[in-house]
């Protein structure tokens, strides 16, 4: 079956040839070895009938078929996230003139929150060969490079997700264009002169400039170092709509089950008015049968309701009224391993047939 997701990527895939490079910068797995991509699901402190540590996490990459509980804790210097960021911290890449790095977060560590920026969080580190894009949901993270790897204590309470993708240099030229729409808060960055001519968008964002945009949103196919296809959906603050319902579900032509932080009185109800729907997930069940409620989950992700579509997206925005006016994005995949891992977590959602206002 040819899905709409596949059609979105097909033309771009014909133009892309995957050439594996020998450069070292990449996502790193639990043991510190290079991987094409990985996903981490940091578990919340409070689960149904249980209080945890708030620093345990599940791990997934292309080499494993299902979620694995990590033997590490996310607030230690071991594990996939610490191993990946060590390339910036320990490798002194932030002092290099041959690599670009960017730390962005609308709630950065040690700085005042400013709502004018996009509701988006992430890290870029790459050189002329390749590097990684880490997109995540954790406020006050990561720490400034000179401080080394630190996990914020505020990041223990709620569930969080992190998606790391390894890309060759050419893909970062496209990612830079996508970041313009997000208008992220760059709180620490470096775009050396040797690369700034290729990356004027990053150089301007690093200098604090807000870009002028040709449209209010952008969709861009991206291909990882090994040819894994992703689609980046990004919207600016001029696209005043729910990214899940008003855009992504309609483009991918699939009904979405959406997990996002559901703070009381601010959540958008499940939307069933458009041809394709976006329905709120209310409870998650882990492979261990432990469950937790969405109001303890600060992650933002969605899956297609229909198993045959196999769409999974991770990103920035909650289904919340105030965030209709915020920039943010989603990174989507039709990888069956990723889809199965996330789809099995859905324990309860507000469906359109229930006719309930949640």
From TrEMBL:
Catalytic activity, reaction form: Endonucleolytic cleavage to nucleoside 3'-phosphates and 3'-phosphooligonucleotide end-products
Signal sequence segment: 1-22
A Pfam family this chain is assigned to: DNase_II
Enzyme Commission designation: 3.1.22.1
Keywords: Hydrolase, Signal
GO molecular function term, any single one: deoxyribonuclease II activity
UniProt similarity note: Belongs to the DNase II family.
Keyword Electron transport: no
Highest classification ranks of the organism: Eukaryota, Metazoa, Chordata, Craniata, Vertebrata
InterPro entries assigned: DNase_II
UniProt name for this protein: deoxyribonuclease II
Native source species: Oryzias latipes
Keyword Zinc: no
One Gene Ontology term from the biological process aspect of the record: apoptotic DNA fragmentation
